[in-house]
Amino acid sequence: MNLNTKNKPLVEAGLIAAMATIFVLVTIFIPVLTILVFILPVAFIILGIRYPIRYTVLSLITVCIITGFFTEVVYSLFLFVIFGPIAIVMSYLMSKKRNEFEVIIAGTIAASVSWFIAIHIISIVSGINILDQIAYIFKESIYAQLDMLNQMNLNSELRINEAINYFISIFPALIIIQSMIVSVINYYLSISVLRRTNQYAGTTPTFSSFKLPKHIIMGFFLLSALAYLSQYVQGIYYENLLHNITALFMFLLFLQGISVVLYFMEKSNLNKVFKVFILVVVILMRTFLTFVALAGFIDAIFNVRKFNKGQ
Prior knowledge:
Elements: H1 2-29, H2 41-50, H3 53-70, H4 73-95, H5 100-126, H6 130-146, H7 154-169, H8 171-196, H9 216-229, H10 238-267, H11 272-284, H12 286-302
C-alpha cells in the first residue's frame, strides 16, 4: 500500500502526459481545434496542485518528447517554452493558496515572457523577422476583406500602412493581453475541474466582482507621464510606449466594464439565455466597446457597484 502511495504521483504524471499528448496531436491534425491548445496548461496545473512541482515538469518534458516523434522537434520545444512556465508558475502559486489576482498576474507575466522568448528563438533559427511576417499577413488580410486590390487609391494605401504600423507598435501589448486571457481561462478551468472532482474547497469570486486596484487611474497617468519623458532618452521610442500603455489600460477598463455589465445583469430578473445574448452582443459589437470601457472607467473612479474599499 505504501509502495502504491509513493508511485501514485508518478502514475498520474504519466497518465496526464499520455492524455496531454493525445490532446496536442488532435489539435495538430484537426486544424479547427487548434485554438484549444491554449487550454493545455490546465492538466499540468491540476497535477502541480496535487503533487510536488517536479512531477509537472516531468510530465511536460514527456509530452514534448513524445510529441516530437510525431511532429517537428521545433514544435514540441515551442510547446514547452510557451506552456511550461505558465503551468509551473500558476500551479505552484495555487498550491500555496495564493489569491486569484496574484495567480493570474503571475501567469500573465510567465506567458508573456515565454512568448517573447519563443518569438526571438524562432526569428534566430529561421532567419525570418516574425514582425515583418505578421505585418505582411495583416496587410493581406485587410486587402482581402476590403476587396480593394483593384481600386486602391493613395489615401487608402496610406491609411492601411498607418494601421499596420500601429498594429506593430502595440504588438507587445497584444502579447500581454493574449497572455492575460489565457491565464484567466486556464485558472478558472482548473478550479472548475478541481471542484468537480472534490479537490477544491475554496470559493471562487464570479467575474461580476472583478475590480481593478483603486489606484489604477493614477497609475495609468503616472506611467504615461514617464513614457512621455522617456523621449529625452536616446534609443527609446516614447510613442510606442504610450501606445502600449494605452492599449493595456483600455483592455483592463474593458474587463472591468464587462464585470459591471455582468453585475447589473445578475441584479436583474432577465432570462439567463437573454443575459448571455446581451453579453455576446456587447463583446462582439464594436459599437459597444467604447461604452463598456467607459463603464469600467466610471466604476474605477466612483465605485458604482459600491464594493467595500478593501475589495
